[in-house]
Design a protein that fits this description.
With 184 residues, this protein is an alpha/beta fold. The chain is built from eight helices and five strands; from the N terminus they run αααβαββααββαα.
Length: 184
């Protein structure tokens, strides 16, 4: 970690890094190795794949709410892409389903939950306040075995489509969730 990164982390500023850098690095190393072999140069004994640093998962994201349809699904997929999540790093869950503690990863991987809409946030947290009061707060899931799981309340995806100016607030909620996940 660089000095700047530690200062930013201490100030509570989330530093984002591109997850697309690893494939580009692999291509660069592969191209250098191929050109080196063509020139008759000596290469290291490590295979290219071993030298490419594999991306570590920073945690698991659980999304709660009504399953998105149509344009809301496109918005959700774009959100997943911007967060850089692989299919193994996120899952969609129904807030009405009973929580099963066996769903928790056994290896201690951190989890953050994002509730789309006030109703989902109220159901999961047990709070009675409306969405404006629940937003920008780290809540806890109100279920046996899940009390330590952080929950972030945000807008329903369909609301974001009808009120695009709320997307900036949605982005703030995503930043809060990412920050919580990094500090677990």
């Amino acid at each position: 970690m660089s000095t700047n990164s530690s200062f930013l982390k201490e100030m509570g500023i989330t530093e984002w890094t591109s997850r697309d850098a690893a494939p580009e690095l692999a291509q660069t190393i592969l191209a250098a190795e191929v050109s080196n072999n063509q020139l008759g140069g000596v290469t290291s004994e490590l295979p290219v794949v071993a030298r490419v640093q594999e991306r570590r998962s920073s945690g698991i994201w659980w999304f709660f709410g009504n399953k998105p349809q149509g344009d809301a699904e496109i918005l959700f997929q774009n959100t997943i892409r911007v967060l850089g999540l692989t299919p193994q790093e996120w899952s969609w869950k129904n807030p009405a389903d009973k929580f099963n503690p066996e769903q928790l990863p056994q290896d201690g991987t951190p989890i953050v939950a994002l509730a789309f809409g006030g109703a989902a946030a109220q159901k999961l947290s047990g709070e009675r306040d409306g969405l404006p009061e629940l937003r920008e707060t780290v809540l806890a899931i109100n279920a046996d075995g899940a009390e330590d799981l952080p929950l972030i309340a945000t807008f329903e995806l369909n609301q974001l489509l009808s009120r695009p100016k709320d997307k900036a607030l949605f982005w703030q909620d995503l930043l809060l969730a990412k920050s919580v996940l990094q500090n677990i």
